[in-house]
Specification:
The complex is a heterodimer of chains A (about 200) and B (about 425). Chain A folds into 2 domains: about 60 residues, NADH-quinone oxidoreductase subunit E (Arc Repressor Mutant, subunit A), CATH 1.10.10.1590; about 100 residues, 3-Layer(aba) Sandwich (Glutaredoxin). With about 200 residues, chain A is an alpha+beta fold. Chain A is built from 7 helices and 4 strands. With about 425 residues, chain B is α/β, with parallel strands linked by helices. Chain B has 3 domains: about 210 residues, NADH-ubiquinone oxidoreductase 51kDa subunit (Rossmann fold, 3-Layer(aba) Sandwich); about 80 residues, Ubiquitin-like (UB roll); about 90 residues, NADH-ubiquinone oxidoreductase 51kDa subunit, iron-sulphur binding domain (de novo design (two linked rop proteins), Up-down Bundle). In chain B, helix 7 links the parallel strand 2 and strand 3. In chain B, helix 2 runs parallel beside helix 6 and helix 3 runs antiparallel to helix 4. The N and C termini of chain B lie far apart (about 45 Å). The chains are: A alpha+beta (about 200), B alpha/beta (about 425). The interface between A and B is large, with 61 and 80 residues. Bound molecules: flavin mononucleotide, iron/sulfur cluster and FE2/S2 (inorganic) cluster. The site of iron/sulfur cluster (SF4) has 15 residues of chain B, from helix 14 and helix 16.
């Protein structure tokens, strides 16, 4: 990522402009997450526990909703690496949040194949509907809106990822319904992938 | 050619072990375990299989380069699939996961590795669940784990989830990421085959590449090579997206032409529009023009036409596409995804994007065009990894074929392409 002073960083989530949220609440894994962590580290050589840092951070993020400084400390201690090592990783990868996000994180893909199919209008429609800009969370903390790069489902453009679920072929006029559905039914409204292989004809 | 890799993907139970076993599943692994590892490498070499991740490097050769004197060795399967326009690997993993697992096991056997890590991009969580379930099934029936099928060969397959970084798809950056660090590439040489994961010899192979290995073992290298033109054997998955009526993944022999793929399989551009340009291999390769549609969509065919097959991500653009806008869109992607390790790429992608943005807004000047070329030439060939060359391609190729659109933007202070209004209105950009 560029660190040029003239750079317009755009969405406040950009990795280079993130600051850690104070210390956050005290953090230790729940017993279930600790058990999963203990299983995950066995996949890597004993002297390479650091390899488990991404899965370990996902566990922390699932538990707390975002990565706090205390979570970083906990993960660093468990892996036997420094906090700086963990923070280095957290600040590089875009899927870790360093401050609270909404219940539903809406990620609109904006890369070329989605863009030529109207992705920017999908974003506009969401901006209008939610009253927040990309990078922001609404006051009720229900929705966070983000623009992301190619999600790898360009045949179903435009794609909006809601938390970990894909919503494909989203028209600007559809996303209003998506928002209503999420409000009304919560997680049950998440769809996921419906893959079909095209055939000639 | 009838689909092979994707033959059963529409079957509801295609991803289960039972279904796979009913359709000759794991027969190739059984056969492979009766041969010597070197024989498998010879078969893969004879088949001419070329890597499906982007570079088209012969897989057998890569496996041969793996240093057999050093233990342990690893396979790192590249399931990062982040090149814009590419969406084939997750289809294989979601609908035919056992094929990949079988490919990983045979690959490990061939190079003498005991562990394969499948590095899957973070956004594919639903795919990861399917894959992990399939791996559990394979362990339960003895196709993975200790002493596989009584052969004395041990093999573990683990899924490792990335966390949102395009650059993690570059093979050495992928290894760094697997080691728990930032996804920033290493200097090459040494190549991963010699110094790879944990400094041990490692074969980094794309998902589709590994899915071809069981076919080669089961049906023989000659059969495999004969599926396509010379040096471009086997089945190939094509991802067609953009302005086409039926975007999707299409499997074909590499004898197929771009025209057959775009106009035949994908139904051509929407009615009332004409084709303007085709990006044949992901966001980072040169544009081909409509008069080049009869190009054979093979590694060599596309290269002869002046572009690259890359990840076979065919992005089709009709007459509503403004090429300045296109370059701006892609450079925003590259600026965002640059890993920041080397200066020309980190700073240069930002400069390119800034210049493109001001031209796009109608605030550009004629000298900006030379500036674009100059910045691009100061990135290309001067970076640590191939990302730098990739990032400047959209700029240079649109300047080459559509310089008049840049000039019109600058002279008129806006986009003058009448047809582009539809796309622009769709995209909602202010004009
Ligand atoms: C910037 C960059 C991004 C890449 N992304 C991917 C990717 O997402 N998936 C992939 O399979 N290969 C990707 N590659 C290619 C890999 O570096 C590597 O060549 C490939 O995984 C080798 O596997 P193969 O020989 O089976 O193709 C990328 C390369 C570069 C330079
Ligand atoms: S070329 Fe770009 S992506 Fe590659 S190492 Fe340099 S900064 Fe990173
Ligand atoms: S461009 Fe949106 S999913 Fe690929």
């Amino acid at each position: 990522m560029s660190f040029h002073p003239q750079m317009a960083y755009g969405a406040a989530f950009h990795k280079s402009s993130r600051a850690l949220e104070d210390e956050g609440p005290a953090f230790v894994y729940t017993p279930e997450n600790r058990a999963r962590f203990d299983e995950i580290v066995t996949r890597y050589p004993p002297d390479r526990r650091r390899s488990a840092v991404l899965p370990a951070l996902y566990l922390a993020q699932d538990q707390e909703g975002y990565i706090t400084a205390n979570a970083i400390r906990h993960v660093a201690e468990l892996l036997g690496i420094t906090r700086a090592d963990v923070e280095d990783v957290v600040s590089f990868y875009t899927m870790f949040y360093t401050r609270p996000v909404g219940t539903f994180v809406l990620q609109v893909c904006r890369t070329l194949p989605c863009a030529v199919n109207g992705a920017e209008r999908v974003t506009e429609s969401l901006v209008e509907r939610l009253g927040i800009k990309p990078g922001e969370t609404d006051p009720t903390r229900t929705f966070t809106l983000l623009e992301v790069e190619c999600l790898g489902a360009c045949d179903r453009a435009p794609v909006v990822m809601v938390n970990d679920a894909w919503h494909e072929c989203q028209k600007p006029e559809d996303v209003g319904k998506l928002i209503d559905d999420l409000r009304a039914r919560g997680d049950a409204a998440l769809s996921g992938c419906h893959h079909v292989v095209e055939r000639k004809g | 050619m009838d689909p092979i890799l994707t033959r059963y993907v529409r079957e509801p139970k295609a991803f289960t072990l039972d279904f796979y076993l009913q359709h000759e599943g794991y027969d190739a692994l059984k056969l492979a375990l009766t041969k010597e590892p070197d024989q498998i490498i010879e078969m893969v070499k004879a088949s001419g299989l070329r890597g499906r991740g982007g570079a088209g490097f012969p897989t057998g050769m890569k496996w041969q380069f793996v240093d057999k004197k050093i233990e342990p060795r690893y396979i790192a399967c590249n399931a990062d699939e982040s090149e814009p326009g590419t969406f084939k690997d997750h289809l294989l993993m979601e609908r035919n996961p056992h094929l990949l697992i079988e490919g990983c096991a045979i690959g490990c056997y061939a190079i003498g590795a005991k562990i394969a890590y499948i590095y899957i991009r973070g956004e594919f969580l639903h795919v990861q669940h399917v894959l992990e379930h399939a791996i559990d099934e394979a362990y339960a029936r003895g196709f993975l784990g200790k002493n596989i099928l009584g052969s004395g060969f041990d093999c573990d397959v683990y899924v490792h989830r990335g966390a949102g970084a395009y650059e993690a798809g570059e093979e050495t950056a992928l290894l760094e990421s697997l080691e728990g660090k930032r996804a920033q590439p290493r200097n090459k040489p040494p190549f991963p085959a010699v110094v790879g994961l944990y400094n041990r010899p490692t074969a980094v192979n794309n998902v589709e590449t590994l899915c071809n290995v069981p076919l080669i073992v089961a049906k023989g290298p000659q059969w495999y090579a004969a599926l396509g033109p010379e040096k471009n054997g086997g089945p190939k998955l094509y991802c067609v997206s953009g302005h086409v009526k039926r975007p999707g993944v299409y499997e074909a022999s590499m004898r197929i032409t771009l025209r057959e793929l775009i106009e035949g399989f994908a139904g051509g551009v929407p009615d009332g529009h004409t084709l303007k340009a085709v990006i044949p291999g992901g966001s980072s390769v040169p544009i081909l023009m409509p008069d080049q549609l009869d190009t054979q969509a093979s590694f060599d065919g596309i290269q002869k036409a002046g572009s690259l097959l890359g990840s076979a991500a065919i992005v089709v653009l009709d007459d509503t596409t403004c090429m300045v806008w296109l370059a701006e869109n892609l450079l925003r992607f590259y600026r965002h995804e640059s890993c920041g390790k080397c200066t020309p790429c980190r700073e240069g992608t930002d400069w390119l994007h800034q210049i493109l943005r001001r031209i796009e807004r109608g605030e550009g000047q004629m000298r900006d065009l030379d500036l674009l070329t100059s910045v691009a030439n100061n990135i290309a060939g001067k970076t640590l990894c191939a990302f730098g060359d990739a990032a400047v391609t959209p700029v240079l190729t649109t300047l080459k074929h559509f310089r008049h659109e840049y000039e019109a933007h600058i002279q008129e202070g806006r986009c003058t392409l009448p047809a582009s209004w539809r796309a622009r209105q769709m995209a909602g950009t202010k004009h």
